[in-house]
Design goal:
three-stranded mixed β-sheet; globular; three-stranded antiparallel β-sheet; single chain; 16% strand; 29% helix
Length: 288
């Protein structure tokens, strides 16, 4: 993709806020960290490479009060750092023999994937890639590779969404709208259970709506475009009663036993130590 589209990406990303289609708090927390102004590079940027990596669900097991609870971690939470490093290595291994290179860049990856033709948007505002459905991670790199063809398009909704409302009917918080393209992100359960432990859930969120350790899978598991992905579940770590209690007590990563840290770190779960306790407590309460 030609790098001149950076300004268009920025404009399209900001427009939903300017048109009052998205909550200010959500916008400031999630949509202001992108790199539309390029950092100092050792090469002249000519293109952006966007890669989709298939990403599974993970089944995690927690022991608590002599019971065992299996909890799903949705795609894209685990292995964030690993996948970005692997994609960078893979892309550069391909480019270097031709005298080109790529460097990671933070962009609105879903919008980039859709406008470049790699993905389409679902009605739930999640991006879908052929053969992967929504079970994928997107990684973007700026590159000096010349781009002679350009398939840049306007953001597109998947054709199948025009006759389907499964996610609209399934979303427990009514965040997915039938009257407009942009969802009410400030009502999305994922948004609320990605908040730090000290921030309470809004009173209008029902306990029965919780379904994942982080995030929510409701709109993805009901989506026809994901039918072939639903069994793509890998086994994650199991946590003993003691380890579960340490997670519930919000113990800092520096004070965790090494054995527990070794379980969390490969899955990037140490990044969510201030998020997990409230969500896990809700899931345990729901299962009791």
């Amino acid at each position: 993709m030609d790098s001149i589209h950076l300004e268009e990406l920025k404009s399209n990303s900001e427009r939903v806020y300017q048109e009052n289609q998205i909550d200010k708090t959500f916008y400031e927390q999630y949509l202001t960290q992108f790199e539309y102004t390029l950092p100092t590079l050792t090469f002249t940027p000519r293109s952006i490479v966007i890669v989709a990596v298939r990403s599974p669900q993970f089944a995690l097991t927690f022991s608590h009060k002599q019971k065992t609870l299996s909890v799903l971690l949705p795609p894209t939470y685990a292995y964030w750092n690993r996948d970005r490093q692997r994609v960078t290595q893979m892309v550069n291994a391909f480019l270097h023999p031709y005298g080109y290179q790529g460097k990671l860049i933070r962009l609105p990856d879903k919008l980039l994937a859709v406008q470049s033709g790699l993905a389409v948007y679902g009605r739930n505002n999640i991006s879908y890639v052929e053969k992967f459905g929504s079970f994928h991670r997107l990684v973007a790199l700026i590159s000096d590779l010349p781009c002679n063809t350009d398939q840049w398009t306007l953001p597109q909704l998947a054709d199948s969404c025009s006759t389907c409302s499964a996610c609209v009917a399934t979303c427990p918080t009514s965040a997915i709208r039938s009257d407009r393209f942009v969802i009410s992100a400030e009502r999305c359960l994922t948004y609320h259970n990605e908040q730090p432990n000290l921030i309470p859930f809004p009173e209008w969120i029902d306990l029965s709506w919780h379904n994942c350790l982080i995030g929510c899978l409701k709109c993805q598991v009901c989506c026809p475009m994901n039918r072939s992905q639903l069994t793509y579940i890998e086994t994650g770590p199991s946590f003993s009663e003691e380890e579960t209690m340490l997670l519930l007590d919000t113990v800092p990563s520096s004070q965790l036993p090494k054995a527990l840290s070794r379980k969390l770190e490969p899955f990037d779960l140490t990044d969510y130590l201030d998020v997990i306790p409230r969500n896990l407590k809700s899931l345990l309460e729901l299962a009791s």
